[in-house]
Each structure stands twice: as structure tokens, then as C-alpha cells.
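Forum > Structural Biology > Help requests

Title: Can anyone predict the 3D structure of Peptidase M14 domain-containing protein?

Hi all, first post here. I have the sequence for Peptidase M14 domain-containing protein but no way to get a structure on my laptop. I'd be grateful if someone could post the C-alpha cells.
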Amino acid sequence: GFSWTAYYDVDSIYGYLQNVSQQNSNWTQLVVAGKSYEGRQIVGLRINTPTAVDKPVMFIESGIHAREWITPATTTYFINELMTSQDPEIAALRDSFDWHIFPTVNPDGYHYSFTRDRMWRKTRSRSSNGCYGADPNRNWDYNWMDYGASKNPCNYQTYGGHSPFSEVETRTLAAYISGLENMLGYVAFHADAQMLLLPYSDSTEHTANYDDLKQIGETSLKYGYAVNKAKYEGPGTAAELLYKASGGSMDWVRHAHGTPLVYTYELRGRYFHWPPSRIHEQGDEVTQMLLGLA
Ligand code: 0X9
Ligand code: ZN
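Reply #1:
Sure, ran it for you. C-alpha cells for Peptidase M14 domain-containing protein below:
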């Protein structure tokens, strides 16, 4: 069975999503954005309980960086909370949004980090010079390659790809997102800087709603802090708090769609390790952070 005391490979995660959707088939739905370079599906779960009003979309992106295993794990943990929690606040959270939740948007990379190289970060596309993968958080078509990205396909970390949206995974996800109407929020999960980041990632310029983003983010962190007393840095722009890096999903979503609430959570851990026995702890914290955000 599936639990939250171990990490699982892509197939098991998709199996879990499938079970959840089958058990609650009138208000959840498996959604497939498309396929990865190696032909894996990019699968998400839509949770949209029947309510009288049209609900705003809340999108969750996890696992864009392969080695950041805690992000798919906490995302399925959060799904399980939405589906099973007896807490009326969590039930209200579930009912307040049309959720589109994608735990592993880079399934090839994630699988590779599981089976070959624990520190793998990128996709697994093959470059003409024989090196593998591009950084899917440097590949989106907004200010592509301006800052913090490598032009060298053999760069282990931040190769931006041969062109914007060269990677089928980012292209596929962007197309899926573009098909959503009424997207209020976009949340990306990373590890392990323990921060809450706002757009923009490559400019210290602030969005027009920066003050709102900051205030909402502070509430989110306050909710999270109550669980484990873990202090996250921020909220602040990724450019100011971390480093300037262009071509990330967060900036593209903000720019291309004007989505009001765009956040990147950098979860906890060290060198991308987080003990499986403590997935619950991170999962409860994230659940509260999203409740605070909502
Ligand atoms: O560099 C990144 O993509 C993220 N940090 S990580 O250590 N998980 O790789 C930061 C994401 C913030 N957004 C951008 N910098 N675009
Ligand atoms: Zn990351």
C-alpha cells in the first residue's frame, strides 16, 4: 500500500492518484497534461467538489526538480488530507477551490533520481552533444536565459535548454495551464532552502500586488510555524531572497496569465534529503501553510 513513511517512484504515485480518483469519481478526476520525453504521462488530480458557485482554480506544481523528493511526497500527503481529514477547516479548504494538483511534473528526472543518480535535477532529454537534460525551471518562455541559467547542455544544474520551452514537460504543462480559466493561485514546491518566494525571480522589481502577496504569505508562514516551529525565510521575491534566475515557471505564470497569487515554497531538508519518517511533519506543515494562504 501507499503511505507517507517512505518515498515512492512515479508509478506508485500515479497508482495512488488513480485510486483516489476511482474512490471519489463524482468529484475528482485524473488529468493528463501530456507525455514526458521518455513517454511517461504527466498526471495530476483534479479535486472539484460540487458547489453552487464556480470556484477559482488553485494549481499545485511539484517535482519539477527531480531530486527534491519531499515535494511529491508532501503533495500526495496534502491530497490525502483534502480527501480524508475530519477537520472542518480542511474540508472547507477542499471545497473552496477547483484544485489541479500535479505531484511529479518531471517524471523522467524523478525516476532517474530514484534508480540511477539521487542528485539528478533536470529532465532527461538528449542534447546533440550527447549530454542529458535541461533544467525545467530555467526553460519557460519568459526572459529565457537572461540570468542564472547555463548555456552548456552538460551543465549538471541549470542548463536552460536549446530554446524556450525546448522541453516537452514545460511545454506540456504550460499548455495545460493555458487551458485553465479563472486561475487564482499557482503554487510551486521546491526544496530545500526553507523559504517562501514571490515573483519575480530575475528582477528585484515588485509586482503590483506585492503588498498583498507578502501579507498573505506571512499568514501562510504563521500557520505553518504553528505546526513545528519551523522558521521559513520570507516572503520576499526570489530575486531578492535567493538569487536571480530566469525561465522559471513562477515568472512565466505570473507574466503570461497574470495569475494574482503566485508562490514558490522552498521546503525543508539538507542536500535534498529529508527523512521519510518525517514526511508527516513536512506534510502537516504544508497543509497548514496552504490553509493560511487560502
Ligand atoms: O533555482 C530554482 O529553480 C529554485 N531553487 S532550487 O534550489 N529548488 O533549485 C528557486 C525557484 C525560484 N524561482 C526561480 N528562481 N525562477
Ligand atoms: Zn528546485
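Residues 65, 68, 190 surround zinc ion (ligand 2) (CB under 6 Å). The first strand starts at residue 28 and ends at 35.
Shout if anything looks off.
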